[in-house]
Amino acid sequence: MGDGVVLLDFSLGMFGNRVKIALAEKGVNYEHKEEDLINTKSALLLQMNPVHRKIPVLIHNGKPICESLIIVEYIDEVWKDKAPLLPTDPYHRAQARFWADFVDHKVHEVAKKIWTGKVDELEAERKELVENLKLIEEFLGDKPYFGGEAFGFLDIALIPFYRWFSTWETVGKLKIDSPKLIAWGERCLQRESVSKFLPNEKDIREFVHTVRKKFGVD
């Protein structure tokens, strides 16, 4: 493998797509290695992330960095020749980290319960997901991006989930009524760094159907 940058990832994965977008924003060339999440994890993944054994993993000069938000911060710190992804102001930087953590624990984890579970038993989760997206929309306000005029860390944290919204609505029998958040998502899709990596909704629906069939919930 030697020097350079390698990304272990799954093409439909929201977390790996964060890393791809960050690398694209910084103009970093890398080698991509696709992982099979349904069947067998590769020996390289198990070697590079023996603790959690999951993707994404960024391998830089032979050394692994794990966990997507940590990887995005690492990319921001190492490749400084392009505009920073995190705000330079300490308070705004803390806010971006807070809401990125909110995305992981209050959006992703709640949504995953819905699209992998028996929906009729998850009324509280369906309500919580809609409310949590509303909270994020309130934080966005009328700004074009979460950091203001510049696309950055929190946008990268959330945008890979955007094309999952319609699947959450269909599978979860819910309605995401967040027009400013939807407008933000469409705005982000105008960036090549975003549009080239986000999977289409059909592929997401097929993946979710496969997972639900495997779990025996459909």
Fraction of residues in helix: 40-55%
- Percent strand equals 5-15%
Give the helix/strand class: alpha+beta
Count of separate DSSP helical elements: 10
Q: What is the CATH architecture annotation of the largest domain? A: Up-down Bundle
Provide the gyration radius in Å: 17 Å
Instruction: Please give the domain count.
Output: 2
What is the gist of this entry?
The protein is an alpha+beta fold. Helix content is 54%, strand content 8%. The protein contains ten helices and four strands.
Would you spell out the secondary-structure blueprint of this structure?
Blueprint: E1 5-9, H1 14-26, E2 31-34, H2 43-48, E3 57-60, E4 63-66, H3 68-78, H4 90-116, H5 123-140, H6 153-158, H7 165-172, H8 179-188, H9 192-195, H10 201-215
Parallel strand pairs: 1-2
Antiparallel strand pairs: 1-3, 3-4
